[in-house]
């Protein structure tokens, strides 16, 4: 029996998120991991399921505009096809092990909404290239600045301009 991706992918991601709880991650970090896995599996060139291998380089900073989370997620290819998932998918040794850099900015509400995000997934050596690393750093800085002053929502009446009558 074949299940559509929309039915089994959230279940697979939930299992991955439960596994990451043991790693002592914050709820926002687990949410970022789940979103990155969903993004990665949604790409057209990915045909196999990938599991979380490791999470490192975690940065979580709070400020008045919200919470910024940055992490590197190591993935490992499994034997299961993306379109035909199974309960137990074993990790294939010596296969692709991409790394994803994720930067997310959440607002300060009770149920945090994503203000801005950036992710870049590729082979580990690809993300280590100087040009790509510099672009990633610039993109993450821009994500971290989301919600601060310059891009606030404009509401009518915030600014009032009046013109004096000619004398």
Low-confidence stretches: 13-22
Number of helices: 4
The gyration radius over C-alpha positions equals 20 Å
Shape: elongated
The biggest beta sheet is recorded as: 4 strands, antiparallel
Strand order of the largest sheet: 1-2-3-4
Number of strands: 4
Signal peptide: 1-23
Subcellular location: Secreted
Protein name: Retinoic acid receptor responder protein 2
GO biological process, one term: positive regulation of chemotaxis
How would you characterize the overall build of this protein?
With 167 residues, the protein is of the alpha+beta class. It has four helices and four strands, in the order ααββββαα. Strands 1-2-3-4 form a four-stranded antiparallel sheet. Strand 1 and strand 2 form a beta hairpin. Helix 1 runs antiparallel to helix 2. The longest helix has 17 residues. About 6% of the residues have low confidence. One of its GO terms (cellular component) is extracellular matrix. This is Retinoic acid receptor responder protein 2. Its main location: secreted.
């Amino acid at each position: 029996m074949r299940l559509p991706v929309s039915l089994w992918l959230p279940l697979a991601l939930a299992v991955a998120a439960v596994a990451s709880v043991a790693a002592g991650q914050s709820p926002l970090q687990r949410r970022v991991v789940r979103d990155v896995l969903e993004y990665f599996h949604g790409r057209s060139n990915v045909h196999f399921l990938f599991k979380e291998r490791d999470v490192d380089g975690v940065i979580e900073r709070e400020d008045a505009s919200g919470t910024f989370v940055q992490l590197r997620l190591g993935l490992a290819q499994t034997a299961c096809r993306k379109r035909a998932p199974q309960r137990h998918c074993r990790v294939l040794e010596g296969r692709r092990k991409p790394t994803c850099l994720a930067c997310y900015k959440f607002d300060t509400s009770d149920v945090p909404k994503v203000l801005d995000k950036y992710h870049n997934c590729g082979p580990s050596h690809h993300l280590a290239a100087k040009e790509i690393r510099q672009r990633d750093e610039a993109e993450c800085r821009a994500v971290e600045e989301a919600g601060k002053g310059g891009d606030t929502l404009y509401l009518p009446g915030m600014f009032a301009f009046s013109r004096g009558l000619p004398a």
